Every structure is written in structure tokens, then in C-alpha cells.
Amino acid sequence: MMIRLSSRGKIGFIMLCILALFVTACGSNKGNAPSSGAESSSGTTASNDPASIKAKVTFMQWGTQEEVNQTKELLKKFNEKYPNIKVEVSSKDWETYWTAITAQAASGTLPDIYKMDEAYLDKYAKLGAMKDLTSLMSEHSFDVDAFEPSVLHKLQQSGKQYALPRDANTIVVFYNKKLFADEKTNPRGAPVPTSEMSWDEFIQIAKQMTLDKKGRTAADSDFDKSSTSQWGLVMDAAGSADSVLESQLWSNGARLVNDDQSFAMNSPEGLEVLNKFRSFIVDDHVVPSSSQVKSISPDPFLSLATGKVAISFGGSWNTSEYKVANIDFEAILPPKFKEEKTVVQVSGYGMNPKTNNEEAAWILLNWLTGSEGQIALAEQGQSIPANKQAVDTYLAIQDGYNKQVFIDSQKYVIPVPFFDGKENLLWDIIPQMLSNPLSGKGDIQQAVKDIGASYGK
Amino acid sequence: MSTAKAMTSTYKYIMLLLGLLVFIGPLLWLLSTMLKTQDQTYVFPPKLLPNPLTFSSFSRLFETMSLMPRWIMNSFAVSIINGLGTILTSSLIAFGFARTRSRLRSVLFIIVLATLMIPSQVTLIPMYILFSKIGWYDTWLPLTIPVFLANPYFIFLFRQFFMTLPRELDEATYVDGGNYWTIYSKVILPLSGPIIISGFIFAFVFTWTDYFSPLIFIQSEKLQMMSVGLQLIMGKNSQDLPMMAAGSFLALVPIAVIYFTAQKYFVDGVVMSGIK
């Protein structure tokens, strides 16, 4: 089938359409688009009063539209104090945020202030994409005592502060209160777990909460492991190497990597942890294997939301999802081998080293991480503020579970800064090479050797 | 014999049905998720039929993402610009490769095709720096101009189609006093309805689904495209699957409408260009 487009008029019409659309598009750009970073950041100071500074500051973060909306709400409060500093917010998703930062750093179009995760700080500080804030902090008497030293330390590189902390998310353990309270789902009347239990005590509870389709528990001799209908504990140690495995290695006196960045998981204490975790899956049948976890929930931390899991490791950020799923839950500190150890994941804000408007950028950074901005952040109830002055505000919002656990967990933080290359070990090498051996498929010692070889340090 | 034919036919239909199930499965899952409440998406084992059935994901989508209508319009505008640009420039260049008699024609064509083999990620940083330096960053120009100035894939597609048109038509035009432009505009283009429509659809869909370019080259919220906007539903640590499914469904509708409307020409164009 063919269409006749032979008339000159038709071709002319098409060309006219293209031209019209193009002119409209380009025209609208100029009307709506802010100019690029370099042009946007010109500030003027009428006097020494920071409130009188007139400027436009570009700001970038990763996250959902909802998180962008929350940031905009926060910035409204900032503008109440600094009405002449216009902050232009843009956002990317987590995965591509870092591609964008790399490209913008290379072309000199970084936003004035941008969100930074502890996992990438080392890399971008070395690339020269982040301003060393140390001198600005002392010049403006920034209150460093308002932060836990371990939290500040996570955003440092070679002793220099490259970002200031925004929030400190923690990884704890959550349990489903309803499953423990119901005789059908807790036929043996297992007690609820508590903070800082030993792994042996903890796994005994998990055993009693693991049920097969006939309602027998994993503590019963006739338990059918092939028809598990309720899991006692969900923990993907290999897939959650940064948030679960590393702190548990520390808990047993082992390390994932030494201070000189060399691989250290192959110690007897390290292997003991891995063998113990493997026995929970292979011998006790209370923890699902890596592939089973994925079938329950693509994100292991969200498995509690299915209502078929009694206890699970989870991040402080998961609580909103548990609520949406109508789960009645409680938070406790994770179990321990020898000592209690926890993970806190810190994110902060960094500054473009080539910003044209350092003064206004600093005012924004200082406000966001200072008591006013952090209290405003705490009032939103979504993030755990890194600034201690905002903790009371955060805790005052009643959410139906013990939020104090998130704050307490900061006392047991493992002091392990990220460095360039460690993210590959935590997010790629260990999940790929340890998942099967931990699930009973393959030799753990060999897997650890292979992980060390792939890591290469 | 007729039994054997019936068997073959039955076998064909069974295979087609299986193929259909494979392709329709994700779509059904998308529709199901879109109509669920958020808590239903956490249920294990997952259920296909939503209960209760709700359209709240759509209202949530437009409430949370107030700029979504604008992003949809932006995607439409850029996709149409690129679709029309492709027809105009790629067909003209393809005409040169298909109909002119230059010695360098084959070499140039190989060079054009070779550019197809360079992954876009490799040229990302240089392109980004270039566009920033010439002031195109955070405008639609990086999304439209490179496509508007012809794309090797479409040059290839158009050339293959033009090769199937008899050369006698060109010769007849010459005899009547025509030149290359007359052949292109009055002979070749009027006979190229199917490939023009296919080219437009391809270019439209490529632009509509392009995530990488707007992500990198557009900074301002108001100029952003729908593909990037959709990604803002899924966070690092949070998920609203019904909202994501609703957004994906909206992104799917224009492609489905265009494809089904122009299906006949589309298949003709692809078959005749020899790409299939």
C-alpha cells in the first residue's frame, strides 16, 4: 500500500510544521529554562547581612518526586529567612545521578550544592568535584559538636571535610508484632526478640516462628523444609554486604577490609560468621536462601511487608512501606556475636569547587545541615536528621514503634569509611560470589578466596 | 493431506498462542499492578487479580508529580520534531546513497554505517562537554539537532527502500527534463509512503523511549521528558509500584495508538526495505 505525497504543497507543509515546532520548542526553552550552572550562580551582596544576599543557587539530589517535593517544602522555610536566595532544585534517580555528576564535573557544570552519599565521597573528592569545606567551616564557626564524630568522619577524606551530613539512616531489625501475637502464626508461643540478643537466642526464636504449610515449626522434628509458608528470619547477608554482613563481621572481631584497604574476610572469625549464616539456611531452615528471598521480595528489607515474615533486617527508611502494607511492627537492635555493631549510612551535601557564588551556596549548606534546617527535616518525619539538635523533634513524632532504636544504633556504628573500589566489593563481587555458597551451593572458604582475588587488594 | 494441513495449522496456532502469552504476560502484569492498592503489591505469593480494584494510582501520579502533564507534552513535542526531521533529512541523504553515481558513494556509506557501532556511552562525556560549551546544555537542542541532522540507522532504512524502486523511473524523469531534486521530490517520495511512515514511527518511538539523553542533557524540571520523569517514581529505597505501572501505562498508550493506526504501512515499510 502506498500513499501519494506528490504535491509540492504537502512537502512544504511538512517543512513548515517542522520549522514551527522547532521555533516553538527553542523559544519555550529560553522562556522557561534557567541558564546553565555557571550563569546562574551570580550573587550580589548589598551589605554584610546574609539575609540581603541576592543569588540563584543550583541544587541537585537523587530520589523520587516525593523527595523532591519534600526538599522544596524545606527550601520554602529556607526562603523565609533568606528570601533573596533562589534555589533551583533538580533531581535524578539514584542509579544515574552518579553518571550525571561525573559528566557535570567533567564539563564544569556541577550544581552549586549537591547531595553526596558516603559511598561515593572518596571517588568524587579525588576527582576534584567537591570543595574542601574545612576552612569554610572554621571561618563560619560551623558547629561540629552537633554531630556524632563517626557521622562527620564518614564524609571526610584524608582528614578533610568534603560534605556536611544531612541524614543518618540505620540498619536495624524489625519484627511483625501481629505474627507473634497470633497463636496460628506463633503456635509455640515464641517470645518477641529484643535488642542486642546473641545469635543463638535470636535464632531459637526464628526457628519457632518458621512454619510449614501444616503449621509445624522449624523447631519440630517433622518440619517440612520444602513447604515453608512463614519465615522466621529474612537476612540476605551476601546481597546486603554493606548493611548486614560487614557489621556482623565486626561483631565477631573480624573485618571485611583492613585499614590499609586490603581484604580481611578470610580470617577464622570471618569464616565463622559466614558458616553460621550458612547453617541458618542449610541446617536450621529458618532463613530463606538468596533465590528464595528474591521470590519473596525483590528488596529483602521489604520482605516483612509481605506479612509472611516474622523478623527481618531492614533500614530505617523502610518503615513507611511497612505502614503502607499495614504491618504492625517493632524495631530492635540487631543480634550480636561478641559485641553489638551496627551500620549507619550517612548522606550529606557537597559544594561545587568551581561555584561562582560560594557565599550563597555556603548559606544554603549551613542552613540545611544546621539546627534550623535539620529540625525542619525532622518535622517531615521521613529522614533521621544527622544533627543531634534535631533528634528530639524527630523522636517527638509518634509513629507507633520505638524510633529511639535508630538513635541508639549510632552508638555502635562501625567506623568504616567507603573508599573508591569498596562499593564494587560490597555491591557486585560479594553478592555475586557469596550468595550460592551461603545457600549451601559451593564451598565458603573457596568463595572467600575468589572474592579476595576479584577484589585484588 | 487435509488432516496433515489441519495439524500444521493447529500447531501454528498453538505456537502463536504460546508466543502471545509470553508477550502479553508482562502487559497483563502491568495492568494488574496499575489497578492495585499499594499494599497489594507486597502480598506474597503475588496475585494477578486486583482486589479491591482501584484507579487511585493515577490520581496519586498526578498529585505527586504535578509536572507530569507538561513532561508528557514535552515528550510529544520532541518526538514529533524528531520524527519529522528524520523523514526530511535521512530520506534526502539516503536518496543520495541510493541514486547518485559517485565513486565515493560506497565508502561514504560504510563510514555512515560504522558510526552505528559506536556506543552512545562512549561519546557521552565529549558530547556533554561540547553541548555545554556551545550553550546547548539544558535545552532541547541536544535532543533534537543530532536526530534532525540525520541518523545512520534511518539513512540505511530509507536507502534500502529506495533501492527497491525501479531506476527506470529516474531515467524517465531525466528524459522529461527533470533533475535529482525532481526525482527525489516528485518520484521517489510519493512512492515512499510506507517507509516514511515507518521512519516516523521508529524515530518517534526512539525519542519517546529515550531515557539517557534527556537525563544527561536536561537539568530543568520544566524541560524534562516523560521517560526521565517516570524514573522519579522509583527511589533508591522506596517503591510505589501501582504508580509506576500507571505511569508506564500512560507512556505505552501513544506508542500503541500510533502503531495500531499505522500498522499496515509500518509492516510494508519494514518488509520492503529488506530490514525484516
Question: Explain this structure to me?
Answer:
The complex is a heterodimer of chains A (457) and B (276). With 457 residues, chain A is α/β, with parallel strands linked by helices. Chain A has 2 domains: 38-169 and 345-403, D-Maltodextrin-Binding Protein, domain 2 (3-Layer(aba) Sandwich), CATH 3.40.190; 171-343 and 414-455, Periplasmic binding protein-like II (D-Maltodextrin-Binding Protein, domain 2, 3-Layer(aba) Sandwich). Chain A has helices at 8-32, 37-40, 65-81, 94-107, 118-126, 134-139, 149-153, 177-181, 199-209, 241-251, 268-282, 290-296, 319-324, 358-369, 371-380, 391-396, 404-408, 422-438, 444-455, and strands at 55-62, 85-92, 113-117, 156-157, 160-161, 163-176, 211-212, 228-234, 309-315, 329-332, 343-351. In chain A, helix 3 runs antiparallel to helix 15 (371-380), helix 14 (358-369) crosses helix 15 and helix 18 runs antiparallel to helix 19. The longest helix of chain A has 25 residues, at 8-32. The model of chain A is unreliable at 1-47 (pLDDT under 50). In chain B, helix 3 (68-99) packs parallel to helix 6 (141-148), helix 8 (168-175) crosses helix 9 and helix 10 (193-209) runs antiparallel to helix 13 (241-261). The radius of gyration of chain B is 23 Å and the shape is globular. The two termini of chain B are 32 Å apart. Chain B has one domain: Orthogonal Bundle (MetI-like fold). With 276 residues, chain B is mainly α. The interface between A and B is large, with 69 and 60 residues.
